[in-house]
């Protein structure tokens, strides 16, 4: 997608509460960073991002009695209030945020996110996978996998509320929006911690000296699942760096641990250097994300990279419960049905129960195999997408398992941009039939395709 004057680096990025305020604090020498004087149209303050402060332990330590609080160290609440005020009061703020992350002890490609807070409700969050633009009372949502379409809806109150109520999403790096538009402390902390599960608790506030020699305010937030530290400039109160590490809810311990090292580079202006704009070009407009994903017409099915009568690309994946699966072994001597589903699609979710029942039936008969594939899931990152898929599965008490497309690489390789889609693969890996969930009698069509494939058709 293209933002005319602002474009973040196009780097693959996987991405995306009860608050108890109690704290222990550590006193260190305080230094201040003076604000820069600049003429209109130039940065009024500029902060160079630092290497994130990494906590000594990846899981919260046992709580000890809180020491006496030094009088010159702000409490977590005071630090957070000062941060919120800074983002709310800035006339215009442009922040280029770098995120380095890892998943299951494997580093992932870094990415850059651009956040622009303009006057009023004019704002942008532009990440490598998606872009949200609020301008002239409209909110536009673009996804990199859809070059020919976008979602547009009227603003409801503010851009963040519109995402929640109309688009049914929480945007990645929404901290700036939440602070800017006066949302709840719980929403703010949840966004800052990238959806870290559990009861979030302030466990420390102090001042630290970063590797560049700067004194920064630091707040620590922890839960039973992980730990997060946030470093802020003591003068401007903007975020400078953060380290977040946690185990997603329902994930196997030590297998699906997520971590993020985040560097912020906030720049304050008196006015936007260039006005925000949105160019629809000749793309199709949809009123909801579900409609955009669920438009499974013949034109879109024809765009799938997999084709009937041709070999299906093999892949390895994990299930929602952490089991490793090699699909080449699955279809070596049996018919396999792959059902791509996403929590973004009402149609895909409504058919999932019937697909799970078909999978149990197939397992009992031994005649073929059915694999649901959770792909194109809503979520800021792999951990949140897994949490949503796993939570959906457990909430409905489905039996059996579903494959998990952790970074949408399976969907991209097969060319799946829409759900629901079912692909029937014959023994040896040849694609026999591709079915759209928009078709009537979907489950019966899958059964008929399996019978036909078994008969050598």
Report on this model:
This protein has helices at residues 76-89, 159-167, 175-180, 185-192, 289-294, 298-301, 327-330, 346-365, 382-395, 409-414, 442-454, and strands at 19-26, 45-46, 92-103, 106-117, 123-126, 130-135, 138-143, 149-154, 200-209, 215-223, 226-232, 239-246, 258-263, 266-269, 284-286, 316-319, 324-326, 335-341, 368-374, 403-404, 421-425, 431-436. The protein is of the alpha+beta class and 457 residues long. It folds into two domains: 19-286, outer membrane lipoprotein receptor (LolB), chain A; 290-454, Glutaredoxin (3-Layer(aba) Sandwich). It has a 15-stranded mixed sheet that branches. Strands 17-16-20-19-18-21-22 form a seven-stranded mixed sheet. A hairpin with a 5-residue loop joins strand 9 and strand 10.
Outline of this structure?
By secondary structure, the chain is an alpha+beta fold. Helix content is 23%, strand content 30%. It has a 15-stranded mixed sheet that branches.
Task: Please give a handful of descriptors for the protein shown.
457 residues; alpha+beta; outer membrane lipoprotein receptor (LolB), chain A; 11 helices
What is the CATH class designation of the largest domain? Mainly Beta
Radius of gyration: 24 Å
- Which homologous superfamily in CATH is the superfamily of the largest domain? Lipoprotein localisation LolA/LolB/LppX
Query: From the 3D coordinates, which CATH architecture of the largest domain would you assign?
Result: Clam
